[in-house]
Amino acid sequence: MKLLTATEKYIEMKRSLGVSNKWGAGMLRAFSRQIGDASIRSVSKANVLRFLDLGRTSDVTWMVKYRKLKAFFEYWIARGEMAELPMPRPKATAGRPAVAPYIYSVSDMRRLLWGTCLMHHLASRAVDPPTLRAVLMFLYGTGARIDETLALAKGDVDLRNQTATFRRSSRSTRTIPIGPTLAQWLRAYSVSNSYDAENFFAR
């Protein structure tokens, strides 16, 4: 497979999953143009290093480009289009350590949901407690991004079939399953708070 073809297929795959990263797509295309009309199997560590060192970039930008190229090549290695990873040794960068992701436990979520009860005492609250609890449960139960969740229309959440559909555009959508516990929570929310459900699932 040609590198240019592999690049466009990879970018389209990411878009189909709801990932839109113009900077990353532009960077991969710039790399492909630099290599030229070559097979993806022919890409070498020297090619990658030459691209990473091109111009005057900060160590942070260098590492961002490095990680995106690494993910790109790992994708095609998993599909048998490359034999090995053509990545040079990463830079040793000084600075703040990487932030470790925090995984919320069940007890963490219970405390968060309990905390929404305190909103009854806030006269200037922007969202009512039941709706906030529904948003928190949806985020926790699906792993969706906050911008995706807030952009949902009511018809995008199918509680009968237990799915949620995110629509970035008329040509870019993705549908994910909703677990039975979350579906049960959302059903109770829509029944007991039907007016607020309309607000929650409205653009």
Please state the CA-atom Rg, rounded to the nearest Å. Answer: 22 Å
CATH-defined fold name of the largest domain: hpI Integrase, Chain A
Could you name the CATH homologous superfamily of the largest domain?
A: Intergrase catalytic core
Helix/strand/pairing category: mainly alpha
Total DSSP helices = 9
What percentage of amino acids are in beta strands?
A: 5-15%
Name of the CATH architecture of the largest domain: Orthogonal Bundle
Q: How would you sum up the global shape?
A: elongated
What's the count of strands? 3
Q: Provide mean pLDDT, rounded.
A: 82
Count of separate structural domains: 2
Distance between the termini: 42 Å
Tell me the helix content: 40-55%
Main sheet attributes: strand count, strand direction, barrel closure: 3 strands, antiparallel
- Catalogue the unreliable spans: 194-203
How do the strands of the widest beta sheet line up side by side? 1-2-3
Helices and strands, in N-to-C order?
A: HHHHHHHEEEHH
What does this entry look like structurally?
The chain is mainly α and 203 residues long. It has two domains: 3-78; 106-200, hpI Integrase, Chain A, CATH 1.10.443.10. 52% of the residues lie in helices and 7% in strands. The protein has nine helices and three strands, in the order αααααααβββαα. Strands 1-2-3 form a three-stranded antiparallel β-sheet, with no helix packed on it. β2 and β3 form a beta hairpin. The radius of gyration is 22 Å and the shape is elongated. The two termini are 42 Å apart.
